[in-house]
């Protein structure tokens, strides 16, 4: 059974998941050739190789766990967290804390084509994948034990993917991840002192400056952060303030899909189809209170949901791990210039 353990020195929680020990291949070099796998568990016809599907985009009347789907969601066979046992049973071990590894771990199989990347699908299909994200987040929030739902994608082995077929993952945790907690606290501090949303103010400044804007259709803005951690890092945010991705109206999914597709095509054409990661940062589950490090209550409406997207062009090494500093060799203004100039033809 997995559990969460707290490190008081690093001020962070770590998931200890011994069930995943049955995957020793994760520690070995992963081939980059997607044809290396003889049988893909995510391809149509291999439904028997995955746990029973949770939901799927498929024609009405088509039986579950059979071919005919366009995208499907299944539980991860080797979950980092699971919904049982029923209680967290948080306890201390001297200076340490631990609790049961309660949560959820799901895989979103995004396409039927083994060689088709998410950015190579149609805008309509990509919007259906985004709808799956939103709806799964809504559903998981019904479990009051789950404080946060993280949606993320690892594309290619160098970005952490262990299966070549395009997919993303959903992990729900009983605590708010440290990276999101920091954003919640900075957003709260900005709101308390200025009575405005921090990311809304950043968007206004970036639009006024213009040098780091890559995409702006009036609904979504994509820009390179002023202090980008990685070369060609991009933040995607809705122009209008919204704290929770799960509340995104259906009509807003297509423009978001159009923004993401264009950015992924620019990555592909400029950087030779690089490995990349993206994650959706959103407000925590409203069914559980979230407090700041000083004990003050954090209100989710002060936050502004967004997507962080970056190609994996360099490695995080000893200096970054040891200091917490990132070294970015490509200034965001230069990265934006390159991204703007590249063709977006498929």
Overview of this structure, please?
The protein has a single domain, classed as HIT-like (HIT family, subunit A), CATH 3.30.428.10. 24% of the residues lie in helices and 22% in strands. Strands 3-4-7-9-8-13-16-12-11-10 form a 10-stranded antiparallel sheet, with helices on both faces. It has 6 helices and 16 strands. With 346 residues, the protein is of the alpha+beta class. About 3% of the residues have low confidence.
Secondary structure elements and pairings:
Blueprint (H helix, E strand, L loop, with lengths): L2 E5 L4 E5 L38 E3 L13 E5 L15 E3 L2 E5 L3 E6 L13 H18 L7 E8 L11 E7 L4 H17 L3 H12 L3 E4 L3 E4 L10 E5 L14 H19 L4 E6 L8 E2 L5 E2 L7 E6 L6 H6 L8 H10 L5
Antiparallel strand pairs: 1-2, 1-6, 3-4, 4-7, 5-6, 7-9, 8-9, 8-13, 10-11, 11-12, 12-16, 13-16, 14-15
Helix pairs in contact: 1-4
- Mind telling me the CATH class? Alpha Beta
CATH level 3 topology: HIT family, subunit A
CATH architecture annotation name? 2-Layer Sandwich
| Weakly predicted, low-confidence segments | 21-31
- Biggest sheet, open or closed, and with what strands and sense? 10 strands, antiparallel
Instruction: Tell me the strand order in the biggest sheet.
Output: 3-4-7-9-8-13-16-12-11-10
Helical percentage: 10-25%
Global morphology: globular
Distance between the first and last residues' Cα: 45 Å
| E-strand count | 16
Characteristic key phrases:
single chain, alpha+beta, HIT family, subunit A, ten-stranded antiparallel beta sheet
